[in-house]
Amino acid sequence: MITVKQLYCILVAVMMVYNAAALHAAPISGPGNLTSTPAKTYSADIVIYGGTSAAVTAAVAASRAGKSVIVVSPDKHLGGLSSGGLGFTDTGNKEVIGGLSREFYHRVYLHYQQDSAWKWQKPSEYGNKGQGTPAIDGTERTMWIFEPHVAEQIMEDFAREYKLDIRRDEWLDRKKGVSVKNGRIISFRTLNRNVYKGKVFIDATYEGDLMAAAGVSYHIGREANSVYGETWNGVQTGVFQHGHHFKQAVDPYRISGNKASGLLKGISAKAPGEKGSGDSKLQAYCFRMCLTNKPENRIAFPKPDNYDPMDYELLARVFQSGWTELFDKFDDIPNRKTDTNNHGPFSTDYIGMNYGYPEASYEDRRKIIKAHEDYQKGLYYFMITDRRVPAALQERLKTWGLSKDEFKDNGNWPHQLYIREARRMVSDYVMTEHEVLGKRKVAEPIGMGSYSLDSHNTQRYVTEKGYVQNEGDIGVHPPRPYSIGYGAIVPKASQCANLLVPVCLSSSHIAYGSARMEPVFMILGESAATAAALAIDANVTVQEVSYGKLSEALLKQGQKLKM
Q1: What angle do CA 288, 25, 22 make, to 5 degrees?
Q2: Is 485:431 a contact under the CB 8 Å cutoff?
Q3: Looking at the chain, which terminus has fewer C-beta neighbours within 10 angstroms, N or C?
Q4: Are strands 165-168 and 69-73 parallel, antiparallel or unpaired?
């Protein structure tokens, strides 16, 4: 006979096992399961999907234009890469950065004018703020280099000042959540079953999920040079413009000299493809790591999940070949921190491991993101523990670690993977290297760019001589800043009449390599929202917006349209 007390104990034990199993099964991050909560419907003039820097500037511009706006953000943190570790801004020519984008960097400057901003370092140790260091320039006093939490706070300040309605951790139902009627988006539904209706929609995500779900044409990967008559698109074997390649002969096999032992991880057994040909491959992703060598603020590099030192055997061979450039991209940001980026033949870029990301389900994207995190954590753990790392480099690296006061709710790890490229819209107007390099005039400019045609490595393969090599690294500087045309952010009129796409804009792979910079995304976000407001006021499609009125509005907002 089981007593009441024994039965109670059994029930408690069962519940504990159930709860533990549920906790273990919970996703690492990202969207949860569909909820049974009844759906709610929300409406605004302009609905923005995304939490990137472009999403924030678009929302501010919409608010300034007197329009109601809702930001539906899958992200909990605002600002995308700008607040996710990319604090050493890729600016190009700073003179062409205007509007809200420049205001953001001006606010960075104002922040670092406060003594309280310098907790781990004296301002004089970082640079003379009054004379214009590499971080600071211009009569408007802008600062281009900053800590991640500072960028996020400025994004939150924008949200607070303009009373932005931001719905965080809301994920688009990509399979059947977008309602399109007569070529217009009527609404979209999230996995939480909330419905968002709008007059004009803006897809400000790095992935282009709303654009794709609405049936707008897009491309993934590299076009062949023949498609748009380009030179720097497609496969680029034998082209090494940044030095991120194997300069010495390095064996690709698990056991050196033994082909039968198989290739080391990350090396493709397939040929790279004919030079200039197209493929579906993507330039590599990575996390921009915020490191510090301030002992009081430093956390030792952790041993990651799924660590296998054999994954870094290729790096050991790179060191053995005499490579010593480990610290060349530990770019200084304030308070003795870095924005650490990829550098060299084997570094933070997880080459070849992102091809499926754009079209992957949310669950599979989380797996890809986790694999990138494990890879980069393992990379640094390997370098501080393996005896084959040169002693001088290893001892210096041990003085570095993750910053204790950054990304505090994510184990001090960046909350945003650097999605350098995912989907790119294909509209009636496609921006190519001809526009970036100044060979073709741009009609109806809405902003400017100036950075180089920049692509990170796309694949790692075995050469005909039997050695490992990287492919895809491009860096071609335009002769002068260039304009970006309005046509690059509007879909084909036959596909969607009320959507604007300022991040996954209509561009070839190599042209996107220049346009994909955070200042440009902020510029295009503001321009997209300004165009959306004009479309609403005139009751026309986004394709029919008067460019005269649009350019007039943008110039009043301080945007730079042409030189």
Answers
A1: 135
A2: yes
A3: N
A4: parallel
Structure tokens at 94: 């700073």
Which of 93-107, 109-123, 126-140, 358-372 bottoms out in mean pLDDT, i.e. has the lowest? 126-140
Q: What is each CA distance from 46 to 172, 180, 265, 499, 558, in whole angstroms?
A: 16, 16, 46, 10, 22
Instruction: Single out the residue of 537, 536, 545 nearest to residue 486, CA to CA.
Output: 545
In Å, how far from its chain's centre is CA 489? 18
Contact call for residues 355 and 281 (beta carbons, < 8 A): yes
Structure tokens at 134: 């590499």
DSSP E strand boundaries for 148-252: 165-168, 178-181, 184-189, 195-203, 218-219
Q: Are 100 and 57 in contact (CB under 8 A)?
A: yes
**Digit-coded pLDDT (tens) for 64-118:** 999 999 999 999 999 999 999 999 999 999 999 999 999 999 999 999 999 999 9
Compute how many other C-beta atoms are within 10 angstroms of the C-beta atom of residue 130.
9
Intra-chain end-to-end CA distance of the chain, in Å: 90
pTM of the model: 0.93
pLDDT digits (tens, 9 = 90+) for 379-432: 999 999 999 999 999 999 999 999 999 999 999 999 999 999 999 999 999 999
CB 366 within 8 A of CB 417: no
> How far, rounded to the nearest angstrom, does the alpha carbon of residue 366 sit from its chain's CA centroid?
15
Check if the beta carbon of residue 31 is closer than 8 Å to that of residue 362: yes
Instruction: Judge residue 388's burial from the number of C-beta atoms within 10 Å of its C-beta, 0-12 exposed, 13-18 middle, 19 or more buried.
Output: middle
Task: Name the residue among 234, 203, 207 with its Cα closest to residue 221.
Answer: 234
Assigned token pair, 275: 């030079």
The answer to whether 284 touches 354, Cβ cutoff 8 Å, is yes
Amino acid identity for residue 403 in this structure: S
Q: What are phi and psi of 559, to 5 degrees?
A: -70, 150
* The pair of three-digit structure tokens given for residue 400, joined into one six-digit string: 């570095």
Say if residues 266 and 352 touch (Cβ distance below 8 Å): yes
User: Is the dihedral angle over the CA atoms 345, 350, 353, 359 positive or is it negative?
Assistant: negative
* Residue 508: Cβ within 10 Å count: 27
User: Residues 6 or more apart from 76 whose CB is under 8 A from it?
Assistant: 51, 168, 169, 415
Q: Which residues contact 176 (CB under 8 A, 6 or more apart)?
A: none
DSSP 399-439: T-EEETTSSGGGTTS-SS-B-----EE--SS-B-HHHHTTS
Sign of CA dihedral 358, 363, 368, 369: positive
Rounded CA separation 302/90 (Å)? 29
In whole numbers, what is the pLDDT of the chain averaged over residues? 93
Q: Is 296 exposed, middle or buried (0-12, 13-18, 19+ CB in 10 A)?
A: exposed
Distances (CA, A) of 111 to 126, 289, 325, 548: 15, 22, 33, 36
Residue 207 one-letter amino acid = E
